[in-house]
Write a structure and sequence with these properties.
This protein is an all-alpha fold. The N and C termini lie far apart (41 Å). Helix content is 70%, strand content 0%.
Length: 145
Amino acid sequence: MARFLHFFDSLEEKRRLSHIKNLIALAAADGHVDDCEVDFIAEVGARMGIKDEEVKRIFKHPESIKFEVPESEDEKLVLLYDYVVVMMADKIIDDNELTFCYDTVEKLGFRRELAPEIISEIMTSIGKERDMDGTLLSVALILHK
C-alpha cells in the first residue's frame, strides 16, 4: 500500500501550485500586477511550503499549472480569502478582479447568488483587520444559511 502514497503527495502539490497560479491570474485580471500583490503571493507560497523559485516559475509560466479545485470546504474558503486579499492589495477594486472572485465562488461549487455577500464579508473583515479564521467562520455561516 505504501507505494501509492506518492500519488497523494503529488495531488496535494498540484492543488498548492494551482492555488498560487490562481492568485497570479487574479492579480493580472486588471492588466497590471502590483508589487504588493507579488509580495502577498510569495507569502502565501511560503505559507504553503512552496519555494520562492517555484513561485517565480509559476509567475513566468502560469499556463503550466492546471486549475485544481480544492477538495475540502476549508481549502476553498482559504482560496477565496487569499483572492480577496490579492484583490485589495493595491487598494483598487477592479471590476475584472471582482468578477474573477464571483466566478470562482461558483467554480468552487458554491451558489453564485451568494458571491456578493461572501466577497463583501471577506472584504469587510480584512478592512477591520479580523483574523482569517474568524472571517472564514463568518463566511461558512453565509454558505450554510
